[in-house]
Each structure stands twice: as C-alpha cells, then as structure tokens.
Amino acid sequence: MSGSKRGKQTTYVLTERVYIIFDTCTQIARLVMLFTLLVCINAASPVPKVTEEECADANVPVHMRDYCVHLFIPLMKCRRENYYLPWRCKFEKKAWEHCEHEDYMDRIRKKRAQKAASGSN
Question: To which H or E segment does residue 105 belong?
C-alpha cells in the first residue's frame, strides 16, 4: 500500500486499478475492513456466514437474509448510528453491493452451466 499527500486528503493505491481517497482515521479503518471483506468474498463458499439467530437479533428482514447478510448487518448498524446520512457508511455499502453483485453473477453462471449441460444431452 503506497500513499501520497494532497492537502488534508490521502490517496492510497491498493492495486493498479483501485484508488481510494479518504481524510479521517475512521475511513482508514473502514477501508481496511472493506479490503479484508472483499478478499474474503472472493474466496467464499456459498454458505451464509451468519446464523438465523444472529439475523433475528439484528432485526434483519426475512427478504434480506441472503448470502450477503454478513455485510448487511454492519451496514444497517452504521446507518442507524449516523442517522442514514447518505455520505456516511460508503465503504460498508460498497462491500455489500459488491457481494450482492458477485452472488448474482454466480447464480447466472450456474444457471447458464445448467442450461448448457441440459441442452447438450
């Protein structure tokens, strides 16, 4: 991770394609959490990482209890703590949206593979 100063903001380069600008220690901590979660998501299995009891304790609606609920719970906690301000909780939202997209793409790939296998018989 390399960094360069620009006034009060700092730019960190995680890979050749990812440039993230932030200005507070809280955002740095969230960035580290996001990067860790993204690495875990890429190597994840399709088994949910949160139990039904944990979902019930966090008051997660039933329709949101999918594979990415382990990222939805911290997002909603952050939103409640920050009064749903749209410029807060960006990193948690981005991690959850990325997980949802990857889950969707996995389901599409499986469906296409299943369709190709049944069509070739």
Answer: helix 90-120
CA 4, CA 60: separation in Å to the nearest integer?
40
Q: What angle do CA 86, 88, 93 make, to 5 degrees?
A: 85
Per the CB < 8 A criterion, the answer to whether 46 and 67 are in contact is yes
Backbone φ/ψ region at 84: left (φ over 0), alpha (ψ -120 to 50), beta: left
Coil, helix or strand at residue 70: helix
Q: Is 103 helix (H, G, I), strand (E, B) or coil?
A: helix
Polymer length in residues for the chain: 121
Helices (runs of H) and strands (runs of E) counted in the chain: 4, 3
pLDDT per position as a tens digit, 34-81: 655 555 545 445 678 899 999 999 999 999 999 999 999 999 999 999
pTM over 0.70: no
**Three-state secondary structure call for residue 118:** helix
